[in-house]
């Protein structure tokens, strides 16, 4: 059995999701942990944990490759480095599992896709819902015509975020670009809740490997926090055969609402909620309830790692979420950032919660929920 040699780039932040699985191999995957890349190792406690387990820490991907090889590189580094590190990895013969978003710009993602093709490697993107059994089963039913053509789709996520959230890491959160000009475009839409818009586009794609190239028709972008991008959005897109798609998200509400989405079809409706007991199900016009299960369990969330490692090892079919799959989402984000301007809320509209260390807009939660209800 082939053992997949894995390197992790980025031990802080979301790299913390992968580390326990790589160190403990909870899912008994055919793999070995070849090394960690972390340029700020002295500030990242996880690096000391890796070293205690005998895993060497390198200060760059290039220095890793000078000593070792990897069959798979997992990229959990900041967004501006996704393209250059992906290209470095595939040039050294490694497949890549890159965390979302693929890149800040579609052009950078295209460079990644071109580089992977030239090197004969694959770059998978960690939009985790697209790797889960329940979502893949639902998509197969949609493609088979079980529910007919789509009439509308919508999703919403309302997550409170504090000042510490925007000050984390090296200070890239909520920024348009690094000081050297490299684009970041970090926002509530392009990063934190990106899974949910991409998921709708993925479900509406014409094949298992594609997402639908929806056109952005309108985008209302607001910010309560002192950031460069936006922390609240209401976006309308056009889906297959003109079907409307609504995307709502905010970090500036008083109260949390975990992700919800629904798709209305000719012959039924699909629902998902992550509030209370997470559930994905459909109800047909004939009154039949189709249960797809929970795509948010620990094992389902880890499928992006599990399926990718097993594919590299030659044990399963190729996961369907690669760079080309994510291009419709990236083009939608590019349109939002290019064609619409984020407007700050007025000072009198914002409440500062000193106890929680955050700001919110009173009444915004209720307005977003009502907007979702209306569709």
What does this structure look like?
The protein is an alpha/beta fold. The protein has two domains: 4-126, Rossmann fold; 129-295 and 322-374, Dihydrodipicolinate Reductase, domain 2, CATH 3.30.360.10. 32% of the residues lie in helices and 25% in strands. The chain has 13 helices and 17 strands. It has helices spanning 15-24, 45-52, 61-67, 82-91, 106-119, 133-143, 163-166, 188-192, 194-203, 298-301, 303-312, 323-339, 364-374; strands at residues 4-9, 31-37, 57-58, 72-75, 95-98, 123-125, 150-158, 215-223, 232-238, 244-250, 257-265, 268-273, 279-284, 289-293, 343-344, 351-353, 358-360. The protein has a nine-stranded mixed beta sheet, with helices on both faces. The longest helix is centred in the C-terminal third of the chain and has 17 residues, at 323-339. The protein is globular and about 55 Å long. It starts with a strand and ends with a helix.
In brief:
With 375 residues, the chain is of the alpha/beta class. The protein has helices at 15-24, 45-52, 61-67, 82-91, 106-119, 133-143, 163-166, 188-192, 194-203, 298-301, 303-312, 323-339, 364-374; strands at residues 4-9, 31-37, 57-58, 72-75, 95-98, 123-125, 150-158, 215-223, 232-238, 244-250, 257-265, 268-273, 279-284, 289-293, 343-344, 351-353, 358-360.
Overview features:
single chain, alpha/beta, Rossmann fold, 6-stranded parallel sheet, 32% helix
- The CATH superfamily name of the largest domain is Dihydrodipicolinate Reductase, domain 2
Shape, please?
Answer: globular
Number of strands: 17
CATH top level of the largest domain is Alpha Beta
Class inferred from helices and paired strands: alpha/beta
Distance between the termini: 51 Å
If you compute it from the alpha carbons, what radius of gyration comes out, rounded to the nearest whole angstrom?
A: 21 Å
Across the major sheet, the strand order is: 14-13-12-11-7-10-9-8-15
Strand % is 15-25%
Q: Please outline the major beta sheet.
A: 9 strands, mixed
CATH architectural grouping of the largest domain: 2-Layer Sandwich
Total discrete domains: 2
- Average the pLDDT over all residues and give the rounded result: 96
Q: What proportion of the residues is helical, as a percent range?
A: 25-40%
CATH topology descriptor of the largest domain: Dihydrodipicolinate Reductase, domain 2
Contiguous helical run count: 13
Helix-strand string = EHEHEHEHEHEHEHHHEEEEEEEHHHEEEH
Which consecutive residue ranges, at least 5 long each, have pLDDT under 50? none
């Amino acid at each position: 059995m082939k053992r997949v040699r894995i390197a992790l780039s980025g031990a802080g932040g979301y790299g913390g999701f992968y580390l326990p699985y790589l160190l403990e191999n909870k899912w008994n995957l055919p793999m070995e942990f070849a090394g960690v890349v972390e340029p700020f190792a002295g500030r990242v406690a996880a690096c000391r944990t890796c070293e205690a387990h005998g895993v060497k820490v390198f200060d760059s991907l290039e220095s890793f490759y000078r000593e070792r090889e990897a069959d798979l590189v997992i990229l959990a580094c900041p967004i501006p480095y996704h393209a250059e590190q992906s290209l470095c990895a595939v040039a050294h013969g490694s497949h890549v599992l890159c965390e979302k978003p693929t890149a800040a710009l579609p052009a950078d993602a295209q460079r990644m896709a071109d580089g992977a093709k030239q090197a004969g490697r694959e770059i998978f993107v960690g939009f985790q819902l697209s790797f889960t059994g329940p979502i893949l089963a639902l998509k197969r039913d949609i493609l088979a015509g079980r529910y007919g053509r789509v009439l509308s789709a919508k999703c919403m996520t309302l997550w409170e975020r504090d000042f510490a959230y925007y000050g984390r890491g090296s200070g890239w959160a909520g920024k348009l670009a690094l000081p050297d000009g490299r684009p970041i475009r970090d926002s509530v839409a392009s990063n934190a809740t990106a899974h949910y818009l991409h998921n709708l586009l993925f479900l509406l794609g014409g094949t298992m490997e594609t997402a639908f190239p929806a056109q952005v028709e309108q985008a209302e972008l607001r910010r309560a926090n002192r950031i460069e991008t936006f922390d609240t959005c209401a976006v309308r897109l056009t889906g297959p055969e003109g079907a409307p798609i609504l995307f709502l998200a905010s970090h500036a509400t008083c109260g949390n609402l975990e992700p919800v989405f629904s798709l209305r079809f000719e012959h039924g409706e699909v629902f998902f909620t992550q509030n209370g007991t997470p559930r994905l199900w459909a109800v047909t016009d004939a009154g039949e309830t189709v249960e797809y299960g929970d795509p948010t369990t620990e094992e389902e969330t880890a499928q992006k790692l599990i399926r990718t490692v097993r594919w590299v090892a030659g044990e399963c079919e190729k996961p369907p979420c690669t760079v080309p799959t994510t291009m419709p989402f990236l083009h939608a984000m590019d349109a939002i950032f290019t064609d619409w301007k984020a407007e700050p809320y007025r000072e009198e509209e914002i409440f500062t919660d000193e106890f929680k260390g955050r700001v919110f807009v009173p009444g915004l939660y209720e307005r977003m929920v009502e907007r979702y209800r209306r569709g």
